[in-house]
Amino acid sequence: MQMSHPVYDVVVVGGGINGVGIAVDAAGRGLSVFLCEKDDLASHTSSASSKLIHGGLRYLEHKEFRLVHEALVEREVLLAKAPHIIRPLRFIMPHQPYLRPAWLIRTGLFVYDHLGKREKLAGSKQITFDAATSPLKEELTQGFEYSDCAVDDARLVVLNAMQAHELGAHIVTQTRCSSAYRENGLWLVHLENAQGTYQIQAKALVNAAGPWVAQFIQQNLKQKSPYGLRLVQGSHIIVPRIYEGDQAFILQNDDRRIVFAIPYLEQYTLIGTTDHEYQGDLDRVKITPAEIDYLLDVYNDHFKHQLGVEDILWTYSGVRSLCDDESDNPSAITRDYTLAMSHEQKDDAPLLSVFGGKLTTYRKLAESAVAHLQPFFSNMNKPWTEKALLPGAENLVSVERLIQEIMQSIADVPSQLASRWAHAYGSRVWKFISGITAMDELGEDFGHGLFAKEVDYLVDQEWARTSQDILWRRTKLGYQFSDDQIQLLDQYLSKLLAKRSQDSAA
Prior knowledge:
GO molecular function, one term: glycerol-3-phosphate dehydrogenase (quinone) activity
CATH topology of the largest domain: D-Amino Acid Oxidase, Chain A, domain 2
Helix content: 25-40%
Shape: globular
Protein name: Glycerol-3-phosphate dehydrogenase
Domain FAD dependent oxidoreductase: 9-361
Family: Belongs to the FAD-dependent glycerol-3-phosphate dehydrogenase family.
Strand content: 15-25%
Number of strands: 20
Organism: Acinetobacter terrestris
Number of helices: 13
Oligomer: single chain
């Protein structure tokens, strides 16, 4: 007798920004959705970005006008959708005449200002540096200033997953899609996790596995990938804060690449990124000595305060999966996305694979991906995500107002903690502090403003399972935690998850 397995309209493989973006779009159009992620949400490329929502100024040089236009429009769309995790950021570009003439930069910035819709963000301008107060070297006297946005990249992924879940999508982490094949007009999808294996069925399968997209097609689906894939590693270093002010710097290098220096988490400066071909283990991506030297050299060419290897506090690296356009230069490979639809016979269940893409344009990519599935789901609703607020943006007058409300509710809460909560959770912060009037009501103190109430919320609402999930992707407190504090948190999580497992089995 044939076993019956749950049937979903769409099964999405991959819990990065593109996977959750497609899941939330499809769920909001009335489709039943299942998403599986082999690790944690945003545990790879989507948490290893430069933390920017930007148009991609340098893409203009490669004539990527469609991509830049789409990204520029999306800056303001996303800023409105999630103002608690996305904020405007001014960028300063020191002028190096021998690299790019001033007229070329002015022209590029004029196009950048006008190619996309810009209502909230200030326009560009030419500036002169004061040698006495500028952190830049004295020979750098002129520059340009323009706007983009900063984002908490991992939280952007989590918020989309939350919204998808609230619209009925089934989201599972630590669950690998081991194989899938077509059977009787459906996909039979095999899943495995720590508890064992199980199967579900899907009318459509979406491969949003990021750097694993081609590997998944070849090894898990036993098919030929429709496109070649270029894997490009990008690495960042984090150092103690090196200048005052909230502005970021965009640094031009002799190889015509650019490197960002960005204020990060108030105490640090984030410097990146690199671009080089990657052929190693996708689960073990690490910065190379050559990348460290490269980033330090670009920084030291521009700033008075010099940095050495000993100043680096942390590093992180990610791999971008880019559709192979046969470019000889990794930094020139298109950051645009390609969607590949596969259904060999007329009645075959479709496979949609996502090649490339960037954080800023995830929503448009998702909208386009679901549009590709439209012919298979005649009752699908219309596009809807452009104006829809992400979790935490509901009833949010401003982050500053929310901080004040938190401080009025909990008399002894430190302002820094109220600010972290407000920026991370927006109005959802009341889910775990509602009714709390004093800090000692927040439960066990794990250090650095992390309390049991928040941990419980992250486990219940945001799929957090390990200290890594909480410290590095949900809260960014990992930079401050000691090994002993991490061990205490792990012990608490182990007991909490064991209790949840017992309760669900009862």
